[in-house]
Fold this sequence. Notes:
mainly beta, Immunoglobulin-like, 6-stranded mixed sheet, 4-stranded antiparallel sheet, 1 helix, Ig_E-set, Arrestin-like_C, Arrestin-like_N, ubl conjugation pathway
Amino acid sequence: MDLQVRLDQEWGAYTEKDTVSGQLVLRNKAPVNISTIIVKLFGIATSRLNSGKYIESHQLFQRVQNVFPPQKMAEMPGSRSLTVGCGTHVFPFSLTTRNILFYPVHGFSLPKSILGRRCLLPISHDSVGSCSPLAYQVDVELLNGQCLLLGYPIPLKIKLTKVGDRECFVWLNDFQTMLVGSTETHASGLVEKDTHFQVIQTMSNIHHVVSHDRALHGAELCIGDSLWNKHRLPIALTPSFETCNISQTYTLEVRLGLQCGYSKFRTTILEFSFPVHLTPPSMDPDPYEAKSAKLF
């Protein structure tokens, strides 16, 4: 007697919204008595610290489906087992979630509020004795709030507002976006934290003009998103999640190198930090199509 499990869709990641379906295929060369066939689906989260010295496990879920005998036959009085003749027999099943890979998808709507950070870029005048102040208010905003979709560009807006009437040139000379991921694991009362870095985009010596010398006081100057909208978040990154003793969180770091002045130029580095939530997009029919080729 031979028993095999065939899945309808054998991709490596399932979400809590997916259904695991398929067939149990039974091949037997002689009649066999079978009382019941049950399919059980369960998921276990296990955390290990210090090379497995401290281990803690939790069962996340369990699903059970009786695929044989059929409901009507099971309710009939008589023998507790049924004879299945020789040959090939197929028993279909359908169950929700599976622990191949924890890949959470949460029902959410993109937040309306914008997550922003602001700082002041002061500019020293080249000549001695000048009392006219000059600065730029720098605003960096995430247009979808904390939510970032894997496989998509970062919805970023960068704006400079001029404070003062003096003339000045401003260039964006350096630009970098980077994700700082933190994995926290608990086991037997101990905590282990692992930090990793993923550079999304880095550019230097770009000399992108932001402000010319004729910009007026209060002028709002936006840096076009063409600098970063072709760079996508890697779809293979682990989404943000928290389950039992394990959590994955992220921070987005945006680094700007602004070169400013009139006759003497200096570069000022500004860094902005945002707590973000990485979320996978809706699953495609083939969720692992070659999107990696489109990332950069």
